Fold these 2 entries.
Entry 1:
Amino acid sequence: MTAVVMMAERQEKLSVRNLVADRDLTRGDLRLLFELADRVKTSPGSFSRALPGKQLAMIFEKPSLRTRTTFEVGITSLGGFAVYLDHTKPRLGEREAVKDIARNLSRWVDGVVARTFSHDSVTELAEHGSIPVVNALTDMFHPCQALADFFTLGEKFGGFQGLKLAFVGDGNNVCHSLLITGAKLGVSVTVATPPGYEPKAEIVAEAKRLAEETGASIELLNDPLEAVAGAQAVYTDVWASMGQEYSMHLRAQVFAPYRVTENLMAAAAPAAVFMHCLPAHRGQEVVDEVIDAPTSVVYDQAENRLHVQKALLILLMQNGRA
Ligand code: CP
Ligand code: NVA
């Protein structure tokens, strides 16, 4: 009996066909994904024929080390393979309509992973295609990152009960995903940004609504020291995301008080871990002493991208086309 058949007998399916934004996944989906990711991580050989011959198109408008490698290695180690589509130039929609790209790809491959500037591009791919579409980062969200991050926190702390994560820096795509997925899992998320760099108000409002159901709290502050108090995880990301490099000079000044230093880590809960989605700009948002410390889990997060995304691909692609 193959691992997939065994899994199908034991587990429910995901409630969705695509992962466009973090809000798509229910709490049950998250549980299912994490359970499978745990088995994929512990026993990768059992899943080597989970997706035999399945073809994954990987569209990238932006650079990537972790996402590209983990999706390509992931699908290959499940028995399928990937085709890389460099869309740095032209971006999606410039040479032909996004819906035409979605309809073409649906005739050739079994799934699409897409990293785009505009979040609407991934939404449109999902709307107009008949195959699963996974958001591999847009300007609004990075759901695969949040999945790996909370999976990592679950491993480190034996679950999510009572956890608090402090995000310090820019209220960006990664911050949005951590807010929504954290709220769903019952992890309290406090965000400290400079004034004017807060996460989008509608995402914060959505996270607050979700947190009411799980007993978590969502807080927005400007003071990083206040934000990390009592946090088991201190998370930061680059001050200028891909596409915002033009504003780096200004941001370097605005964000300087938000650098994660040993002093800031000392103000968090005892044994707090340091997290970063990577790539890191050492000496800017985080100092070497913190990212290289034993309490840094950044490479565990990066490793878990592979396991969590393999679980996601299995759950989304094992059932074939819509
Ligand atoms: N964290 C992350 O998505 O890394 P890449 O940009 O290298 O894919
Ligand atoms: N916020 C960063 C994340 C990189 C993985 C960016 O969008 O560039």
Entry 2:
Amino acid sequence: MKDYKRIIANKINAPLDKAELLSYITETADDAFGDYAFPCFKLAKVMRMPPVQIALKLAEEVELDDDVVKVEAVNGYLNFFINRIEFVNDALSEVLLKGENFGDDTVGSGKTICIDYSSVNICKSFHIGHLSTTAIGSSLYKIYTALGYNVVGINHLGDYGTQFGKMIVAYKLWGNAEKVKKDGVQELQRLYVKFHQEEAERPELTDEARKWFVKIEQGDKEASELFEMFKQITLADVKEIYERLNVKFDSWNGESFYNDKMREPLDMLRGKGLIVESQGAQIVDLKDYDMPPCLLVKADGSSLYATRDIAAAIWRKKEYDFDKCLYVVAYQQNLHFKQFFKVLELAGLSWAKDLVHVAYGMVSLEDGAMSTRKGNVVLLRDVLNKAVEKSLETIVAKNPNLENREKVAEQVGVGAVLFSALENGKIKDITFTFDRVLNFDGETAPYLQYTCARCNSIIEKAGMSRFAKIAHDMRALDNGETLRLCKLLAAFPQAVKDAAYKYEPSILSGLLIDIAQAFNRFYIACRVLSDNLSEQNARLSVVEATGIALKKGLALLGIEAPEKM
Ligand code: ARG
């Protein structure tokens, strides 16, 4: 695509540095006022003229050509009109020629990005609290891959901590192998909940649990075997969900993987004089940075979450030599990340600046928050199942003859749930409602999938083979609806990059919604199927390009697009 902003910048004869000038040029909100605008207000001082006059003067000096066909001075703005038909043609050609590679790039080649995401906890069911990290992390994984990066997806399992001592006690007191095999993680969860209920009245259980935890750490046979069993049960459970969500990891190295990898980093920090003793514990003082101290070794000698994260960051740098390491983790852990990033920075590790906490908000269901301890967790599996069930109802009502509707319902239901975690800016807390996320006419995944399937069916009706044509009858495309849709299609590649660089898949999901809405307006305004074949072909190219962009965009969000709906 031509870089119209740059082309326009070169036509403005203003006493400004080119880069600055370029930065003031914006796309117009309303194409009645041209395609790009340049405000002259900033020039008033240097040019010693009122902006209105500056605009008139600069407009006169603009040289028009095949790319920029008209300029108007309006209220202190320069409004530029580009060669729209050529723009539309270029935008469509770009999508049609690239096909499924549309939006891909090589900017990331030779660079490595680690993404720590989902990072579930052993013995806990996969609940809705892990939806956002899973959806956002997986989408970033796909986006960075499309941009040519070497991506390492890491599930930093929560598989270390005193809670596993509690699990062993609970299991030995109230559990049995058969039931655990049968009910899996749900039974583990039940035992965990029971432990907390009983612990309130029987404080000796807490001591018992502590002892078992020490045994796990020391590699005691019975303790390790039980722990390993808990771990395998949990992993079998979550892997089933990852499969449904089409989420992948390259590493499952969790917290316990660093059991024997903390000494070196601790020695290094000590060597640099960063660690001080405080009431028997070892800490890094962060007073100067307005943070509470980072606790690294407890008085009893055991390590902490932060110690493991420090060891993990150092290990990952050695192993992968990443350019960036992202942690997709809820904002509740803001302080934790700020603290250990700071510790690594104070240790003089120059790459500490490449660690990024990608924070996001909480997801909750209409009926309120969830807590594992009390046992009223909202399981992601239940949410997915319900979404699929409801999708099936809608599909049956809309299209009773659809083949393999179970599969389509799965794609729609799962897609709707994933999209709900990708539609907003990350930091927002969101409340999940089935009716909203499954609304086929709302700003939802089903709406995108439906529009995409609609593109397929229009092409099928026309009896056209794909990638058949790039438009020739340009007059058929000379209208506002096509122009506005094509502007959005042309914005797609940059949106993919922005989503990556801002760690914000919602930039892409928002654009997809805009594209689908613009497409539906185009489809109302412009008759696609007609006897005039050259007109039909031209408009079919718009339909096909839209289908390609929507399908690719959904794939980058980790969402499938059913061929038919
Ligand atoms: N398991 C943790 C949790 O569920 C998230 C771990 C995030 N990753 C990390 N390196 N700290 O809260």
